[in-house]
TrEMBL record:
It is a multi-pass membrane protein. GO terms for molecular function: transmembrane transporter activity. PANTHER family: MITOCHONDRIAL BASIC AMINO ACIDS TRANSPORTER-RELATED (PTHR45624), SOLUTE CARRIER FAMILY 25 MEMBER 48 (PTHR45624:SF7). Solcar repeats lie at residues 2-77, 90-191, 200-287. The keyword Membrane applies. It comes from Chelonoidis abingdonii (Abingdon island giant tortoise). Keywords: Membrane, Mitochondrion, Mitochondrion inner membrane, Repeat, Transmembrane, Transmembrane helix, Transport. This is Solute carrier family 25 member 48. It holds the Pfam family Mito_carr.
Length: 297
């Protein structure tokens, strides 16, 4: 653990549900993951799995850069204040604080992005019929025409606060989620990397990053379900009053199993996604350090 904590890790616990995963967690009427996939494909073809992804894709670079930077700079600031050297090896407590700060900031940026994505994914007719009886309202068309229309509609109807619907649940997901992302990665890198090596090898980064991603996404699934339901709520009516009410209603209607809905998809998807993310980060950091060394020997 000591050797692992000596390595400065920075990445992003950045998630993005496809249409199937969001509907599995926020909707009802889907028996399991396979049934959800088949239902989405049957009703909307392959396009249904990518609904609402244009907005996250357009903002992912900014979101990731800010989150990575917050974690790294917070860690360096703590090291400077505690040890008088910003490059001092961080302690476990330093990593925890830096991870928590990154989690809080991620909600400020990622909350609206997730909201728009989920609203666009959850406005389909099969979801409506499975969850709430709105036949008398004559709803047959999507509420939102696209990301921009979705943003303007939410701001007009709910104000700025509406853009942060589900922020409480997202905080409860991301703050511990980032801790279970950065810390396992740092520790695992220390265990895998041989003594005497200055930095972990690409294979070490890939394995450690993948395992960290699977751990963080797997353990975050219960609150991810609550967050998705709160953000999907409000497309046509408001069903939940808050985090506690959402947990209570979900439990009473579907039991404890609802809070692990999608855990397999989250864990499996988290491995390659996080492995690639950490590997890209570490390789970029090495390249930047190399350029700096050549410029300022």
């Amino acid at each position: 653990v000591g050797r692992g904590l000596k390595r400065r890790a920075s990445g992003g616990w950045v998630g993005g549900h496809g249409g199937g995963q969001t509907r599995l967690q926020a909707g009802q009427g889907y028996g399991n993951t396979l049934n959800c996939i088949l239902t989405v494909y049957r009703n909307e073809n392959v396009v249904g799995f990518f609904k609402g992804m244009s907005f996250p894709l357009a903002s992912i670079a900014v979101y990731s850069s800010v989150t990575f930077g917050v974690f790294s700079n917070t860690q360096r600031f703590i090291s400077q204040q505690r040890y008088g050297d910003s490059n001092h090896a961080p302690a476990l407590s330093d990593l925890i604080v830096a991870s928590m700060v990154a989690g809080v900031v991620s909600v400020g940026i990622g909350g609206p992005v997730d909201l728009i994505k989920i609203r666009l994914q959850m406005q389909t007719q099969p979801f409506i019929k499975a969850n709430i009886n709105l036949k008398h309202m004559g709803i047959g068309f999507p509420t939102y025409r696209g990301p921009i229309h979705c943003v303007s509609s939410i701001l007009r109807q709910e104000g700025l606060a509406g853009m942060y619907r589900g922020a409480g649940a997202m905080l409860l997901r991301d703050v511990p989620g980032y801790c279970l992302y950065f810390i396992p990665y740092t520790v695992l890198c220390g265990w895998i990397t041989p003594e005497g090596c200055i930095s972990p090898s690409p294979s070490s980064v890939w394995i450690a990053g993948g395992i960290a991603g699977a751990i963080s996404w797997g353990t975050a699934t219960p609150m991810d379900v609550v967050k998705s339901r709160l953000q999907a709520d409000g497309v046509y009516l408001n069903k939940y009053k808050g985090v506690i009410d959402c947990i209570s209603q979900s439990y009473h209607s579907e039991g404890l199993k609802v809070f692990v809905r999608g855990i397999t998809v989250n864990a499996v998807r988290g491995f390659p996604m996080s492995a690639a993310m950490f590997l890209g980060y570490e390789l970029s950091r090495k390249a930047l350090r190399g350029d700096q060394a050549e410029t300022n020997p």
